[in-house]
Specification:
The protein is of the alpha/beta class. About 45% of the residues lie in helices and about 15% in strands. The chain contains 12 helices and 11 strands. It has helices at about 1-25, 55-70, 90-95, 125-145, 190-195, 210-215, 225, 255-260, 265-295, 305-315, 320-330, 335-350, and strands at about 40-45, 75-80, 100-105, 150-160, 165, 180-185, 200, 220, 240, 250-255, 300-305. The strands form 2 sheets. The chain has a 6-stranded mixed beta sheet, sandwiched between helices. It has a 5-stranded mixed beta sheet with strand order 2-1-3-10-4. The longest helix has about 35 residues, at about 265-295. The relative contact order is 0.16.
C-alpha cells in the first residue's frame, strides 16, 4: 500500500510540472505574447466592392488569403462584400461597434480626413508610387495622428490610378469644357471640379451608374480599373486620359481593441500581409489601367491630353492643395504638416 501511495505522488508531481511547463510555453496573460489556445481566430471583414472589382479580388481577398497562409490557417475570415453589411460610409462605425472586425474605412473622411492628402490632384504619377508614399505615411504618422485616435488601426492603404472624367453627352477636351458640367466626385475632387467651374456632386462609387443614367450627373470620375465593375462602360461615351484630376485611397482598418487581443504572431502576419497587399494591388492596378484604357477605346471615345494640355490642367488645379489644407486647419487638423511629411516621403523615394 505504501508503494502504491508513493507511485501516486510521483505521477501527480509529473502532471503538475507538465501543466506548468505548458502554461509557460504558451505565454503569460500578464505580459509577452497573448495566450494561444490553438483555436481558430475568425475575423469579420466588410466592404462595398462587388467581388468582380479588382479591389476585392486583388485587394481584400488577396490580404485574407495571405493572412491565412502566414498563420497556417489559424486565422479565418468572414467576408461581406458589396455592402452586404451597411453602406460604404458606415464601415468605420461598424468596425468601432465590433459588428465587424475589419472595415473599408475610406469614406470616413469626416473623422479621417488627413488620408486624403494622397487624393489631391497630381499627388503622384502611378498607383505604385502613390501607394508607397501613403502607406509609409500611414506607418510613420497617420496611424498615430489619425487612426488610433479614432479606435482603429490601418491594415493596408492603396492609391488608385489617377481618375479620369467619363461622360455621356459631351467630351471634355479642354478646361473650358468643364464649366457648368455636373460631375460625380469623391474626396478632394470636389474641390478640384469646383476650381474648374464644374458642379461637383459627392457620392460613393456604387451610385455612379444610376446617377449617369438618370442625368443627375453629366459624368463620373473613375480610374479605368473601376469602370467595368460599376458598369460605367455600358453607358459612357467619352473619357479623358492622362489627366491628373486626383484619385482615391483604399484603406482597410481593424478595431484597435480587437487587434490588441490577438497573439503577436497573428499581428505579425497582418502586418506582412498588409505590406504585400499594398505592393501587389498597386502594381496590378497600374498594369490593368493601361490594358483597360486600350480595351475601352473600342466603344468609348478616349481623349488623351497632350503634355502641354496636361500641364495647363495641373496648373489650374494647384490651388486645391491650399484650399484643402486651409479648410482642415480651421477644423483643427494638421493638414499642412501632413502635406510636408507626404512630400518628404515622396522625395525620398525618387
Amino acid at each position: 500500500m505504501k508503494k502504491l501511495w508513493t507511485l501516486f505522488i510521483c505521477v501527480l508531481v509529473l502532471v503538475v510540472a507538465s501543466a506548468c511547463g505548458n502554461k509557460e510555453a504558451s505565454g503569460s496573460k500578464d505580459g509577452g505574447d497573448k495566450a494561444d489556445d490553438g483555436k481558430v481566430i475568425k475575423l469579420k471583414i466588410a466592404d462595398s466592392f462587388p467581388t468582380s472589382n479588382y479591389l476585392s479580388s486583388e485587394g481584400a481577398v488577396f490580404f485574407m488569403n495571405r493572412v491565412k497562409e502566414l498563420t497556417n490557417g489559424k486565422v479565418e475570415f468572414e467576408h461581406y462584400p458589396a455592402e452586404q453589411i451597411g453602406k460604404a460610409n458606415s464601415y468605420l462605425d461598424l468596425t468601432l461597434s465590433k459588428t465587424i472586425d475589419i472595415g473599408y474605412t475610406s469614406y470616413a473622411t469626416d473623422r479621417l480626413p488627413l488620408t486624403e492628402v494622397a487624393t489631391l490632384p497630381g499627388a503622384y504619377g502611378s498607383a505604385e508610387e502613390g501607394s508607397k508614399i501613403i502607406w509609409q505615411l500611414m506607418k510613420d504618422y497617420l496611424a498615430k495622428e489619425e487612426y488610433l485616435k479614432n479606435g482603429v488601426r490601418p491594415m493596408f492603404a492603396v492609391s488608385l490610378p489617377q481618375y479620369q472624367f467619363v461622360t455621356t453627352k459631351k467630351p471634355v477636351k479642354t478646361l473650358d469644357d468643364f464649366k457648368g458640367m455636373k460631375a460625380r466626385v469623391t474626396g478632394t475632387m470636389e474641390l478640384g471640379f469646383d476650381e474648374l467651374g464644374a458642379s461637383p456632386v459627392f457620392m460613393p462609387a456604387t451610385e455612379g451608374y444610376t446617377a449617369m443614367e438618370r442625368g443627375t450627373v453629366d459624368g463620373v470620375t473613375f480610374p479605368f480599373t473601376s469602370i467595368a465593375p460599376y458598369q460605367i462602360d455600358a453607358i459612357a461615351k467619352y473619357s479623358t486620359k492622362g489627366a491628373n484630376l486626383g484619385s482615391f485611397t483604399v484603406v482597410y482598418s481593424i478595431n484597435e481593441k480587437v487587434y490588441q487581443s490577438l497573439p503577436d504572431n497573428v499581428k505579425d502576419a497582418l502586418a506582412q500581409a498588409g505590406d504585400e497587399t499594398v505592393e501587389h494591388l498597386s502594381k496590378y492596378l497600374d498594369e490593368k489601367n493601361e490594358e483597360l484604357a486600350k480595351k475601352f477605346s473600342s466603344n468609348i471615345k478616349i481623349y488623351e491630353l497632350s503634355k502641354e494640355e496636361s500641364a495647363k490642367w495641373d496648373e489650374a488645379l494647384k490651388p486645391v492643395w491650399d484650399r484643402w489644407a486651409e479648410d482642415l486647419e480651421k477644423r483643427g487638423f494638421k493638414a499642412k504638416e501632413t502635406i510636408q511629411k507626404y512630400e518628404e516621403i515622396k522625395d525620398s523615394l525618387k
